Amino acid sequence: MVKKRQFTREFKLSILKELEIKKMSEVCREHNLAFSTVSGWKNDYNGNPKSAFNGHGNLWKENAKIAKYERLVGQLYAENDFLKKVLEKLKQTLVEERNVKRCYTE
Question: How many Cα atoms occupy the beta-carbon half-sphere of 42 within 13 Å?
Answer without folding.
Answer: 15
